[in-house]
Amino acid sequence: MIALDQDRILLVTVYQPSNGKMTGKLANNSRCPLCGGRLIPDQHATIPFVLGRVVVVVKDVPAEVCRSCGEPYLTGAATDQMLLLLRRFVRLPIEVSVASYAELTAAEPVAA
């Protein structure tokens, strides 16, 4: 879930490791919190973000994707990067933007 609260963007992720510990590594039995399907690591997804009056569609975002329902789950590093990128987009005088994650992150370091 993503919420825009004045100048803050809140990105809430839903992930609970099966062993109860966050290790930074994908467990072999990772399951989708929505449908219980198996998560496939090292995938890419196109994810729309609706932030008040601004719509941002980001292509090729690194994610784990559910084999059953197709729901993408961002990696921790991708989540951090997306928050910084979305803050930049909210400030632009553009209502709809479509961007590539790889191009955005390679173009220049993102500052908060």
Describe the secondary-structure layout.
Layout: E1 2-5, E2 8-11, E3 39-51, E4 54-66, E5 72-74, H1 76-91, E6 96-100, H2 101-107
Parallel strand pairs: 4-6
Antiparallel strand pairs: 1-2, 3-4, 4-5
Percent of residues in beta strands: 35-45%
The averaged pLDDT comes out at 79
Assign the CATH architecture: Roll
CATH topology (level 3) name: Ubiquitin-like (UB roll)
Strand count, sense and closure of the main sheet? 4 strands, mixed
Structural class: alpha+beta
Mind telling me the CATH class?
Alpha Beta
Shape: elongated
What's the total count of β strands? 6
> Ranges with pLDDT <50 over ≥5 residues?
none
Distance between the termini: 20 Å
Integer count of domains: 1
Q: Please report the number of helical segments.
A: 2
User: How much helix, percentage-wise, in residues?
Assistant: 10-25%
The Rg value, from CA coordinates, equals: 15 Å
Could you characterize the architecture of this molecule?
It is a single chain. The chain is of the alpha+beta class and 112 residues long. The protein has a single domain, classed as Ubiquitin-like (UB roll), CATH 3.10.20. Helices cover 21% and strands 38% of the residues. The strands form two sheets. Strands 3, 4, 5 and 6 form a four-stranded mixed β-sheet that branches. Strand 3 and strand 4 (54-66) form a beta hairpin. The protein is elongated and about 40 Å long.
